[in-house]
Amino acid sequence: MAIATEIPVTLRVDTTADKFAISSSGEFTTKVKLDYDEAPHNYSVTISISDGVNSDSAVVEVQVTDVNDNSPVFTSDSVTYSIPEDAEVGSNVTVVSATDKDSSFNKEIRYSLREGEGKFSVDPVSGMVSVTGALDRETKAEYSLLMVAEDQGRPAKSATASLLVRVSDINDNVPKFSNAEYQGEVLETEIVGTTLLRLSAVDPDEGANGSVTYSILSQSPSSDAPVFELDSSSGTLQLAQPLDYSEVKVYSLVVQASDGGTPSLVGNGSVVVKVKDVNDNPPEFSKESYDVAVSENLASGASILTLEVTDRDEGGFVGTLRILPESAPFSIGSDGTIRVRNSTALDREATATIMFQVEAKETDPPSHSATATVNVTLLDENDNSPKFTSSQYGSKVFTNQTEGMFLLKVEAEDPDAGVNGQIKYSIDFGNQNDYFSIDENSGAITLTKMIPLEAHQTLEFLLFIAARDGGVVSRSASAQVEILAVGDTKPQFTQSTYSGIIEEEKDPGTVILKVDFLATGDIPVTLQVDKEADKFAISSSGELTTKVKLDYDEAPHNYSVTISISDRVNSDSAVVEVQVTDVNDNSPVFTSDSVTKSVPEDAEVGSNVTVVSATDKDSSFNKEIRYSLRGGEGKFSVDPVSGMVSVTGALDRETKAEYSLLMVAEDQGRPAKSATASLLVRVSDINDNVPKFSNAEYQGEVLETELVGTTLLRLSAVDPDEGANGSVTYSILSQSPSSDAPVFELDSSSGTLQLAQPLDYSEVKVYSLVVQASDGGTPSLVGNGSVVVKVKDVNDNPPEFSKESYDVAVSENLASGASILTLEVTDRDEGGFSSGYFLYTNNTFDINKLGVVSLRKDVTLDRETKDRYMFQVVAVDQPIDGLRSTAQLNITVLDYNDNAPQFPMIPDPLLIPEGVYSEDSPGEVFTIVPTDADLGPNGEVTLSLLSPQPLFRFTEDGKLLAVGKLDRESRETYELLVKASDKGSPPRENVTSIRVSLIDVNDNRPEFGSSSYVSSILLKDAAEGKLLLTLSARDRDAGNNSLITYSFSAGSSPYLALNSESGDVTLTSDLADVTEDTTVVLTAMAKDHGQPPLNSTVRVVVNLRVVSLAEGVAFRSSSYNFSVSENQPEGAAVGAVWASAGSDLYDVAYTLTTHTDLFSVDASGAVWTRAQLDKEEQEWYILDVEAVDTRTPPTSATAMVRVQVDDVNESPQFPSQLYKASVFSIAPYKTSVIHVKASDPDVGDGGQLVYSLSADGGYFDVEPSSGLLYVVSALGLAEQTAAVEVKATDPRGLQATTRVEVEVYGSASGDDVAVISLNQPANVVEKKVPELEKSLGAALGWTVNIMEVSSANGGSSESRTRRAAVKTLVSFISLDGQDVVSAEEVTKKLQSQSAAVRAELVKVFGESLHFDVEVKPQSPASNQAAVIALATMLALSMLGLIVAVALIIRFKRTQKRQEDSDKESFDISRKAEGYTNWSEQSPETSEQRQTKSQERRTEDEQQRTDDGGTVKTDGNSVRFKRDGQMEDSSESRTSL
Prior knowledge:
The protein has nine helices and 119 strands. By secondary structure, it is mainly beta. The termini are far apart.
């Protein structure tokens, strides 16, 4: 503005002068603050200027620009919004917006969010808050966020608002049981309703989603009705059915906890309930009744039966076994084995069956018991001899006798059973004229031929009858029968007394017996009953019958019936003794059919209850009654004889109040009859049960604010006794802690527990009461129980960590899900922190409800990635309105050896010159430095070779060294496996392969392909330049080291030239000046190009021939014949072959191509043995020897060599140098001792051996051909051990010896030798001596040694010619252990065990076998005495004298005939086969023995060549011929 300064002007604002002003200088200014936000943004201000005269105006356009003078403003400073916890990431929560009055950039707002733990984000422009992380209400229920709104001005202005995001619950958590498996135990006797366990499951959801309902999903094993009940709200598991340990021992339940969400989520758990055994099962036998059969007379201690006892309670049966009644002849062991206690009571004939009971009683209370019945049937043994019904029998024979007529019947009884009671009858003596015979089965005696009778004369015959049973060892009895032969004709009975037996109750007319009588046929006779005629009648034929039924029980048992016979002139009478026998026609009868008896339940085992007896009208066994008991569950038993019922098991009225028993009475008749009676045993009550509470401990909870009089629990106790014994009264015995006034009251009759005083949790938290239940018995029994009352509190204490900060270090190899530490949190409120939970923010670790910090299951640690974690943990004591506390958790990750070493890049190959390296002078190949990402020892790496390699090794710093000889020509490349191992535990490894190649060094000389080079050429073929041969050498080095140059190093020839490169040897001329065969010998050299060079030489031979080139090796002879003695040591010379090469220039080598194992050939052609040869194995060998020369190529020739092995006489050999044998001192001459046999390896005549004794002692000798050592005389060696040396000599005089030690037993004498005779030829018996000894030993039960087998045919010559008369004597000695059994004892046993002996002998000789036991000969005087004794026994004195004289005469004649017979039999001569007769001799001196030994040998030699012979006797010895014939055969014998 241009204004003249001379004229003052005035400037002013004409419009909006309230806001603007202008100075005189023209400065336009504001008069007030302009507000862009609340006023116009532009002003048109009119200004004017005036000097008073003139004026002007102008418009000033004022633009107001915005400045950032306003902060953003939120619609609300605090916003609360709810979002479900399953909101998806990215879902919107709400818009929290703000405004700014500024404009442009100053009003542009950008939003940001603070806090929220990364779960939320805000759109910076729109302010929309959205979810950016998964939400979990149970982890965090609400988030306090700070919303920031900031404008874009400079400087920026901002504002904040709080946003509370509440996470609403959804049902996303499955209820979880506090234990994965609950375990509990319960007695099998616990009553229904007993609380077993309290289950607890937690669902961290809210409201219905978190409310838990419990149920049982399944039960194993299953049952019709569930055994357990689970309270749906409290989780209390109770017993719903009675338990039985014997049926189920363990129950497995699958339980579930369901929440109230929709749909409901279910978590499963398991409960194992173990049923504890209570001794409530009685023992059980495998059978109620056992039947066993044993032999009577069984020895005491013998076992008859083993019972099996089980118990369904735990541990099975533990208790005692006993036999009832104790009088039974048996005992029982703890293992259930029943044994004979009293063998004398086992008598089948007295009692055929024995019945008793076995009681099994538990040791532990209440000592249950059970019984089983054992029925023992006694099997018969032949322990009773037959017994005749009468000691004297008689009969008569009259003139009307006829052959075959019945005279009388003898009868014997044997109470044994089966064959032991079957009787055979025989007449032993008195039947000299064979007038009589007896039926062996019935005992009927008949007339076999007519007795010459004379009138008025009576002949008397006394027969001795034997009755023998059929037992294996037969028993017998004897009786006398007197038979009178009457010569008159009067009618008369044949016996004066008859016996008859009839069973009672037989119908009238039953025949008792038929009496025999004599009467002439012309005069009729009358038979009648004179006494007891009302009961008996007799027919005209003599049959005595009954006229009425006879009763054994109500009438006489025996009747003497007089009968008579008359022909009206003469008469006779006799008595018939009639015995009426009882039959079992009456059953036992009980005194009462029904008996009721009471017994107290505390009756001791063994106490008597009552006698339930029965009677039987029969007699003998038919009236003997045996009692048995059925039912009773093993609690009762009955004495089988007296009928006394006694207690055998503990009684318990509460278990069973009465027992219905069935009493059985059975007689001993056959068939048996029985009767029954019922016995009702009532068990009376005693006060033996203590009242028992239904729960061992009652538990209840009560708020401390509950009013006095509130009912807390109802107690219940049960007493199974009756009446007053079972009525229960309740009372409180004690209270803990105590108080002046009782806090609780217990109703005495109902058992209701009520509150009697106010409660205060701060003073007492738990009350323990001891309550008791008393019954009304006298004395009263009291059962105690306990009640625990818990006072409930209010939550007012926050949880407390044990530390403010937890520091823990874990290994990076920690398993996923593994626990790290447990945060210890306590809460002084009731229940502590049991309902609490933890809040934390960490994606690597989890913290469960118990405070166990663990690595998440889907996460693993890696120290190399992250080595430290720090976060806060908040403990909240309960889900709703819980109190909190915070702790810091610092987790350090420790290194674990989880990284294997890594190799660097390694050149391939690694190079090193070949050479001789060592540990002292190694060669360095390469240095390898591996790496390992782990720390400490885990990252320290060492190198080694994987496989042992003596040529290379690594140093500690990774340097590979060569430490052995490296030869490129042997091996150019080495593939090495290198192992890199760290020092972790366990260490980690890495393996790689490296290749080491060797650089060549000139260390090998050239090698010619042949040791010499030879060539031949005919002069006529010679021409200059003609190739004769080519030298060839090889150098194993490489490169220049292997290049070869050839030259002649020694010798020279004008005819030959050598090419230095090819090695060709050629002619230098046509050899025209050579006129005779010439051999040129030169030395050629091959040299390599190494530094320094190496060389080698070879011999070169060139034959210049005038006429021929033919040459070759040849043997002097095409075949050779050699011989060598057998048994020569290795290396014996056989012979030599020779071959020529045809030229001195060549050598010859020999090779054997056959039998190289037995022969060899050396360089000179000498043939040698390589092993001992044996002519007996192979006599001839054909060898092929090959000769090869050194020509190139070589020539060869083969020669045949025959080698014969010459025989050398070899010594015989015994298989053993010592033999041992034994013999009795009484052994007869020629008794075999032992058979020794040597072998001779020679063939032909060399194999024929002769045996002899090295020294003749006179006691033994040996058969020259067989080697059989036999006895000459051993009497002088009794109880000594004699040593004999036996010698075997071959035809050429070579010998072998062996030693025989013979132990001579002296305990046997001639009196110990028993003799039996067999109806078998002697030669047959001798062949079967071993089998015979075994059979006799088996029958006698001893060891049998046969001393002699000899032929001893007796009787006339005529009888010896028949086959049936063959007889062989066998003499033997029996040993019982080491003791000799006397011949007398042996003879007795042979007789008593005859059947068993024969059965064994039949196995050897067949069914035709018959044997006798031979008794030693007696003197004639003794025979006469025996005859006289026999005559006296028969009461025939005169006849006995005659018979005795006749026997003596006959004896002498028989003796004479025997001697003649023996002499005749001497013509039968055969060799002894080791068994001859023995002779008993008196002791002799050594000289006498030697003299007699010589005599015997002389006699032996004579008998070998002489068919005849004589028998000599010397003193008291009896000598026998070698054919075994006895010289004196007079003997007595018992034929079996």
